[in-house]
Amino acid sequence: MTTSTRGAAKTPAVLVLEDGRIFRGRAYGAVGETFGEAVFSTGMTGYQETLTDPSYDRQIVVATAPQIGNTGWNDEDDESGRIWVSGYVVRDPARVPSNWRSRRSLDDELTAQGVVGISGIDTRALTRHLRERGSMRAGIFSGEALAPDAELVRRVQAQPHMKGASLYEEVATKEAYVVPAVGEKKFTVAAIDLGIKGMTPQRMAERGIEVHVLPATATAEDVYAVEPDGVFFSNGPGDPATADGPVALMTAVLERKTPLFGICFGNQILGRALGFGTYKLKYGHRGINQPVQDRTTGKVEVTAHNHGFAVDAPLDQVSDTKFGRAEVSHVCLNDDVVEGLQLLDQPAFSVQYHPEAAAGPHDAAYLFDRFTSLMSTVREGQRA
Description:
This protein is α/β, with parallel strands linked by helices. The chain is 23% helix and 33% strand. The chain is built from 10 helices and 21 strands. α8 packs across α9 (265-273).
């Protein structure tokens, strides 16, 4: 990615899709060029959390809400230490942000972090195109990066596909760190960082859990060195079919029957560890308004999603795995995609969506309580 920051608001820009469709607008954020997988997110708020979510690594995110940037950018809501999206596409950026916590504009933050974006295009038409054709490789070009259309299409088509991409190690922490429990410490959890969001260990800490966040390359020895009551596998970017290391680690955890909880990429890792396959969705689930049914209770939740891959597991039968019986615990009501798995013979479960849900909704926060209950039950059984 090459960037400049001068005169972005008046600079022409183009978004180029790999199938040759081109959208023309104005530069937003940094000026230059960037490449990634074009995907759309249906959240009407929470753009700061979206942009700083490591799961969006190497993706150009299209905001379906027409007006973006109204609340500016603050210093509290980042989900990681930087913006991870490759590029940002908006229709009508706010001219002046207005919020009591705002410290600067979204445009200024994109510029400061060198994130190339585009504004002033018909994001509804673009979203319809991606729904019909599927997520695809794309590029944003502005300033000196502009060139004849045919040349820009060629450059986009030369980029790697998301399928087969191994990205989780490039976004994960390189050094272990600890998020202390809030109040009385009740449990210790080893959290494998595959692209973890900052709110996730915070949600556990609020429940009295001391969270040891470990690199994606952590071994079973690293995990059990912290004497965990439970192990957590986080969200993250890329194709789960490439994640052989995390699958092997999860297998080792399952063999020891340690309470286990996975989110998003962690759900796909559990699926693979249980012997299920994974596949790429046509355009994925991204946003904060996805309906999911918890089949264990029948309750329907409005949930936050960010995934382009899913687990291929049977919806309506219990499956026999090498770790006992497993079933689909949650399902998306829009398209019947697997949104959760659970083992019936040992304490392990996962969901495909984000129960930490920054910036909302919070319907699924109970899943952290469910994890706490699993650890409590296992501890009581060990004492008996």
